[in-house]
Design a protein that fits this description.
The structure is a single chain. The chain has helices spanning about 75, 115-125, 150-155, 165-170, 190-200, 215-225, and strands at about 1-15, 15-25, 35-40, 45-50, 60-65, 85-90, 105-110, 135-140, 160-165, 180-185, 205-210. With about 230 residues, the chain is α/β, with parallel strands linked by helices. It folds into 2 domains: about 1-90, Elongation Factor Tu (Ef-tu), domain 3; about 105-225, Nucleotide-binding domain of ferredoxin-NADP reductase (FNR) module (Rossmann fold). It is globular.
Length: about 230
């Protein structure tokens, strides 16, 4: 569905990362599932960005990397409070299991934290994190990050948070993922490699955003792993 939103905040952080918040003055409620994405169209050209906040809040939050010479991200990252932006939303089936049977591990890198943040916020606010073991493995090497305070909050809630410059090496230190359901987000190459590792470590289920892969790539993953999440 199409909407016109209004920018209420656009903060720049290290490494050209921006956190953008958009509200909808003309509608009473906007609901999305934790993990879904929106297509932002600041100049008529659309790009998909994951929604980074809990569904019940009165705005949508996005964590966006400014891509030099990009057609969309530089426009979005230059927007100011009060600017209007067109978007279509919500989309995607990379959604948190609201009644998980297993423990949960979230594995992501860079701006791939966005949908994972929404999922973790949901788990904490709905107090699901108290019923299962929850682990976050996040790839980030810079000294600053817009969500460092959020990571601290997660630790205070008893969630195991590992910030690392090498996700694969950190993941390899875990002997087994049996009993864990995995959620993975990042570049296609990162997601594919992490799926392979999680499968080898006997994860009970593996969730990822399938729209970043072509049909051919999805079939290759199915053939490679011998199962499909």
């Amino acid at each position: 569905m199409g909407y016109v939103g209004k920018v209420i905040e656009n903060k720049k952080y290290e490494n050209d990362i921006h956190v953008l918040k958009i509200t909808f003055p003309e509608i009473e409620e906007f609901y999305h599932e934790p993990g879904q994405f929106a297509v932002l169209k600041p100049n008529g050209i659309g790009r998909a960005y994951s929604i980074a906040n809990y569904p019940a809040e009165e705005y949508l939050e996005f964590c966006i990397k400014k891509v030099p010479n990009g057609k969309v991200s530089p426009v979005i990252c230059s927007m100011k409070p009060g600017d209007k932006i067109a978007l279509d939303a919500p989309f995607g089936d990379f959604i948190i299991n609201k009644k998980p049977k297993h423990n949960l591990v979230f594995i992501c890198v860079g701006t791939g934290i966005a949908p994972i943040k929404a999922m973790l916020e949901f788990l904490v606010k709905e107090e699901i994190h108290n019923k299962k073991d929850v682990l976050l493995i996040y790839g980030w090497r810079e000294k600053q990050h817009p969500y460092f305070e959020f990571f601290k909050f997660l630790k205070e809630k008893g969630i195991d948070v590992k910030i690392t410059g090498d996700v694969e090496s950190t993941l390899q230190t875990i002997p087994s993922l049996k009993g864990f359901e995995a959620y993975i987000c990042g570049s296609p190459q990162f997601v594919k490699r992490t799926i392979e590792i999680c499968a080898l470590k006997n994860a009970e289920k593996i969730n990822f955003e399938k729209c970043i892969f072509s049909e051919k790539e999805l079939k290759e993953l199915e053939k490679l792993l011998g199962f499909f999440p």
